[in-house]
## 1
Amino acid sequence: MKTTLTEENYLKALFHVVDHEGKVTINELSKFLNVKMPSVNNMMKKFAEKNWVIYETYKPLKVTEKGHREAALVVRKHRLTEMFLVKKMNFGWENVHEIAEQLEHVHSAVFFDKMDEILDYPKFDPHGEPIPDKDGNIIAQDLQKLSHCKAGETVIFTSVTLSDDAFLNYLTERNLLLNKKINILKIEGFDKSFTVEVDGKQEILSRKATDKILVKK
């Protein structure tokens, strides 16, 4: 039986909020989805029947291997679509999320496999996030938030966390794009804002911004 649109949205939410042990609480899912807890609770009971999660009253949910694969395959469709829109249709990285939200619910695996082939099997989406393969496997990345780095360090802008179009526009306007070198010149003690240098130009980034930028050294 095919998954419903609502089920796929819940699966994608599980993918994004689950911790390193594969656990998540009903409350965390409720906040992420902006859905009332009783509704989330009812859906997770259905997920337990499908063996996507292990559900026990008053305990965090445990996402099963089957559940993780199902969630990863929804994310695969979304990220492949974003990559296709950027690489083949010349959309900006700030304009693809909403369209991908719609296309990710297409159920044809052949459609997305062909998209993958046309793109020459990309490993990452336009925002630097890894694209799960056909089996739901995903590349592990050793990244950290820019906000966790220190003055004097030089890092590579590798990915962004879940963010809205306004933030991506903010980055584009400042030429802060993936794979750019970021030299951290100064960190303000008061508000933790960063003064950075990118391509010879200095920018001041708020703590909110540096929390959303993922880098590698």
Note: The chain has a mean pLDDT of 94.
## 2
Amino acid sequence: MSIQSEQLQQFFQLSFEEGAKEHGVRQIMLHAVDVFSRKGFAGTKIKDIAESAGFSQGYVYNYFKSKDEIFTRIVEQAADGAGKAVEFASRLEGTPMERITWLTEAFLAPDSLAMQHWRLNLLQTAAADAIPEEAKRIAKAKMGEPFKHFVPMVIEGQRMGEIAEGDPLMLAIAYFSFIQGLGISRIQTTSELPFPDANVVLAFMRRPLRYYAGKEEAE
């Protein structure tokens, strides 16, 4: 993994810590994501989250009134984190394709906090009728945040000849669909199957090159 990707990983962690300053709250949220993902929203109880985190139920209730509040807080944190991650990547020194590659490496790292976002997306899709209305409202309101900084990188990359031609928004939608699908696949896969790296993931975005008489020429 590149230095820039490691910087993004560190940014994910710092962003999470800024959004949940108490260590106990962070532990509750991280364990809650795991429990919600395994048991579903309807099947999860505060007791399950407390046991997973190694806390008493009373300790959890010191910070959250209900599992609805925990879930909603996680959704808000994940949605904010996704937007901030792309914004941070867009400010790194490098070409648009380099920045997108570093972002992809950070997103797909096995221990990436960004994976929590994909796990929640899976849960929200599978149990849309069960999750809190406030969580659905927040997710819908913030779903466009990552695109605000990703689409301009695509446009810049197209101008430089790095990124394939096409509607920048459609390329961005395809990118995040791909990332989300791989994130969910990693969570669901228990075997030691090989996992695509950033270069494989981004092949559809790279502008193809042809060689004529030893001269490299973009299509």
Note: The longest helix spans residues 67-90.
## 3
Amino acid sequence: MKLILLGAPGAGKGTQADILCKELDIPTISTGNILRAAIKAGTETGKQAEAYMKAGKLVPDEVIIGIIHDRVAEDDCKNGYILDGVPRTIAQAESLEKAGIVFDDVISIEISDEVIMERMSGRRVCEHCGASYHLVAVPPKQEGICDKCGGKLIQRHDDEPETVKHRLEVYHQETEPLKDFYAKRGLLKSVENQPTVAETSEAILRALGR
């Protein structure tokens, strides 16, 4: 089964990808991870990506698609894969098609901006050990202090309200049109975000006929 996970930043794509890869026994392909792996392995596309990154530039779509193409050709992808973080734009989706990278289903996790703002603005991480908390869902025993190591809990720049608002604007402008793109191809399955992670996973698996 070859899947794409779509959803706004904070929709829980990474969490669901981790769960689905275990349930379906297929790997998750995350853009950041495969970029780092390709650079470490010294592949031709990895070297190209590294050159752009060292110059402080965004890695172009054709290089990212090339790295994905190499990754899905590996043995562990024979039974399928989950793409998380790509495509972000119509141009990337078209490039994937041209490269012969196909999908069985595209899952879109539907969640309101208001819920995302609340979810992400409540996140805190330990500046020492990196443990994650949420002021409402998973609060620390002592306010501002990590349960595990006693380190200070901080709010990452990515989780600050203004940053979240900007990321949502970019999502609606650049990534949300992918829903229509894949709906026209008969691949889109929209799944409403549920009260718990487990319930959202169950809803996704039902949408996939599992």
Note: The mean pLDDT is 91.
## 4
Amino acid sequence: MAESERDNHARRGERRGDPERRNRIIEACLDVIAEKGVAGTSHRVVATAAGVPLGSMTYYFDGMDDLLHQAFERFTDESVRRMRERFAAVTTRDQACDAVVRTITEDVFRSQHDLNLNLEFYTLAARDPSYRDITTRWMDRSREQLRRFFDPHTAQLLDAMIEGLSIHCALSTVPPSEDDIREGVRRIASAA
């Protein structure tokens, strides 16, 4: 068997032997970004964090941009999934206001890890327009939940409040209180 055939056979065997490798790499990438930032994220660092051979990186991803895109897609998909679950049983506008408060206090403020990922993603998307498709889809899907109970303008303002508070919480030594968040949501919702 030729060397290239052995390499291809070995890769196919790796994939069959470790079907979760790609997912592990993406999760490790998110952890590395949260700890070291996008600037400190490389194939080598992510491979080490995922416990996979460095060659796995190019097997599963077409380069660092592809890995970053997929990692941030995963992060935003998870964020939207949590928001959809939170709004699934909501039937009234008051319940929707409470769901917005819970989204902020329990999902957005959930961990420094996620706050760091938010900031890194915002910074990357601000500098590189190729990531804005992810932010646009993320905002659209979040606002879709809000528009079930609020007009489009109010949904946009509430979404901006959610995103803005994630930045404030990540950068502040004293995050806003739940009462302050509830008051902000009430003011925006009642102005509509």
Note: The first helix runs from residue 3 to 17.
